[in-house]
Each structure stands twice: as structure tokens, then as C-alpha cells.
Amino acid sequence: MEITDLTPAERRVWQAFSLGQGVDFREGADEGPEAGASWGPERTIRATVIRTLLVGGPVRDGEIAGLKLTGARITGRLDLAYGAIDHPVRLRSCHLEQPPQLYGAMIRALVLSDSVLPGLSAATLRVDGVLRITGCRITGPVRLQGAKVTGAFFLDRAELGRPAAASDVATPNPAHNDAAEEPVLQLNHAEIGTDVWAVGLVAHGQFRLDGATVGGQVNLEDAALHAPGQVALQAETVSIGTDLNGLRLHSHGQVVLSGSRIPRHLNLDHARLSNPGGEALSADSCVVGELWLREAAPMVGTVDLRRSQLDFLHVLPDAWPAQVRIDGLSYRTLAPHLSAEQRLPLLEREAAGYLPHAYEQLATAYRGVGDDAAARAVQLAKLRRHRSTLTWYTRLWGHLQDVTVGYGFRPLRAAGWLLLLLLSGTAAFAFDHPRPLKPDEAPDFHALVYTIDLLLPIVSFGQEGAFSPRGWYQWLAYLLIVAGWILTTTIAAGISRALNRQ
């Protein structure tokens, strides 16, 4: 292409390219590209001109060439597929008529900040620097599958996709799956050297991140993901170097993090996750350092944390939805520290019914912070919940153990029953003395000591072997002997647990 074939606007860009200088066509610093389709030839650049500059444009010795264009209307398709671009490309506040084609391209840096474009096709793109679509308005899909960016990917304040019609939002179709509509942002299997910076991102459709590797953090602070009845964030088996920050994240659709690795924080403080009739959060089989749900709004939809491993979990009971799946979930520390009565209702919301592991895990967390009373309360609740799954006669025996000794976790209750039996037996045998077996050798009868002899299986004061009750008093003696064995064993077990904790 000869310079004589260029318009005045294109000639201006051509001359600035070799010097690495910027060209700004805006009439004011605050002018945006929303009305770019109506811009005239004085600020219109053909995509073929830009392609010619980037592939083989003029360069000067001692100068660093580069495309720095602001406030331009770019007509035609910018096709750089498989191209090796040695110059940085910066198209700020521009209006592109067609989606750029960057499939398989290699480029130094790509900046499209605050621009308007109908899409971006850049699968397997290689960027030796940063990729920036900050503040962009992109109505079509952004395809970056398999892209490799040595620096960061910035999409803060960007708006992707088209808002759904009001009727679609009011009556979402649960049967509508993510295959029916192309995701608006496709980063699956991408490799990002440092961060994915998406603060304030607005996505009308699915954000797909499956299998991606991010060296630093994924920052979705204040982001809004709109995909009612569908998957809003699809991020299975993602490997993140540090954190996934979802502070104040608003998700209208399912958030999927299954199998992901997040070594530090998964921060969902103040987040609002909503997917009525489906799963709001699917984070099964994850390995996460710390999961924060501090002051998060009550989640609408189920939560799946099965088989995930957490070092730290900070969540208030109010944040959990009506149904959860937590079979195999493990955590070392649970915060804030609340009573067992406040934490136990969650375990009753398990979709699979009674799961002993969930109770054992909660009890272990309480023991880890030294709250043995709460741990015992959880274990007692576990036995009571298990009782509801048994046959009627087994449940009857369980009720008896619960009322009498609290399944062994209420030793003081056992002592109370022991005292009641002691008083009852003393009164009964004081009213009707049992007959002596050997009248000439029998000691003087003492109702209190005789009852103690019956109740305490180890201690013997010689009264039990010297006297034999008659009639129903004999059955009372049998009852005291059996009850004494059960109750004293329970008390001994409680004392043993107390000594083991010291």
C-alpha cells in the first residue's frame, strides 16, 4: 500500500507509527466511542491500513514503532490471524465495525481499552506483555481459548454481551443449558502469567474459565454476572496462583468451581449468589486455603461443597441456602466461633439425608479450638439424627439411652438418675426390710448402704450378700443392679474423657 492511497486521517496514523507516537481523533478527552458508527472520514481508518502497518509498516532507526490510536472508527475486519506482530497495538476509545481476527497471532501487547466492538476472535493468541480490554463494550463473544499472556489480562469495567430482554429475565428457562448460547467470555485452557483483573466486570452471559492457569489472582470484585437459569461462571479445574476475589460479586446464575485449586483465599464476602431452582455454588472437589463468606447474602439455590478441602471456613449460618451438599467436606478451622446449636441446623439441610461424616467434621473443628462441650453436643446430635434412620424397636432403645444418659455424653444426667434410684431404693427398703440369709451372722440392716451395694457394681459393704428381698422388692433389686452398671459405666467414661482432655 502506497501512502498516496491513504486518506488524510490514515496518512496521519501512518506517519506517527514509525515514531511510536499516538494519534488522538477525539474532540474532547471525555468523548466515548458509543456514537462511533456516525463518525466521518476525518476519523475513519480502514482495517487493511492498520494490518499493513503492523505486518510491514515503515520503521526508523533509533525509534520504537507502534500503533497508538485513540478515538477512531475502524472499518472492515482487522485480520491478523497467525501473524507475528513485533509492535504493540493500542486502540483506545475506538469503534470497530467488525470483530478483530487474531486467531493464532503473536503480538507484543494488545490494548483495546474503552473501545466498542462486536466481538473478538483470538483463540490461541500469544501476547508477550499485557492484554487489556478495560472499559470495553463488546456485544459479541470474546474468544480467547488457549491464549497465552505473559503478563496480566485486564477487563475491569468491561461490559460483555447483550442484556437479556425483560421477559427472559422474568421467566428464565431452567432447561436452557450453556450449549444453547455461546459464552460471552471464553478463557478456557488459557495461561495468564500474572492476574485476571475483572473488577467491575459486567457479563451478560457465561464467563468460561475451565482448565485455565492463572499465575496470580482472579479478581472479580464488584463484578456482575448475568445468566439467569444458566451457568454464569464456569471455572472447573482452574489453577490459581493466589486468590479468587469475589468481594461483592453478584451472580445471577450458577457459579461452578469444581476441582479448582486456590491456595490462598476464595473470597465471597458480601457476595450475592442466586440461581433459583438450581445450584448457586458448585465447588466440589476443590482445594482451597480459606473460603470467606463473611456477610454474604443468603444464597438462593443449593450449594455443593462435596469432597472439598479447606483450611479455613468463615461463614455465618444465615448465608447457607435451604439445601446443601457437603458429604466429604473437610475443614480445619470454622469461624466465627458459634455454639453447636447455631451450626447444627446446616447438617439437617443435607440433600442426601443423614451423613455421619458431616457431624464428625464439625465435632473435630470444635475440638480443634478446645470447645469440647460443643463437640459433645454435635456427637449427641449425630446419634439422635442416626436414630431416625433405624427400625422402631431400635429407635425405642435409642430413646431410652438418650433420656437416661444422653448416649453417654451427659454423665451428669447419669449421676442424677443414680441419685434418684438411690433415694427411691433407700425409701423402698426402709419400708420393707429384706430378710437376712443367715439371721445369726447377718449385720444390722441399713437401707441406704444396702441400696448403694446394689447400685455400685465394684463397691461392697456386705449388705447385698447378707439380705435377700422378696416379691416385687426382688425385681426392684434387679433393676437397681442393672441400672447401676449402666450409669456408673457412663460416669466412668465421662471422667475418662475429661482426664484425657487435660
As a percent range, the share of helical residues equals 25-40%
* Biggest sheet details: 13 strands, parallel
Anisotropy-based shape: rod-shaped
Instruction: Indicate the mean pLDDT.
Output: 89
Percent strand = 25-35%
Radius of gyration: 37 Å
Content-based structural category? alpha/beta
Task: State the end-to-end CA separation.
Answer: 87 Å
Task: Please report the number of helical segments.
Answer: 10
Biggest sheet strand order reads 1-3-6-9-13-17-21-25-28-30-32-34-36
Q: Residue ranges: pLDDT <50 for 5 or more in a row?
A: 174-179
Kindly state the number of beta strands.
38
Question: Could you explain the architecture of this structure?
Answer:
This protein has 502 residues and is α/β, with parallel strands linked by helices. The protein is built from ten helices and 38 strands. The strands form five sheets. A 13-stranded parallel sheet has the order 1-3-6-9-13-17-21-25-28-30-32-34-36, covered by helices on one side. Strands 10, 11, 14, 15, 18, 19, 22, 23, 26, 29, 31, 33 and 35 form a 13-stranded parallel sheet that branches. The longest helix is centred in the last third of the chain and has 30 residues, at 472-501. Mean pLDDT is 89; it is low at 174-179.
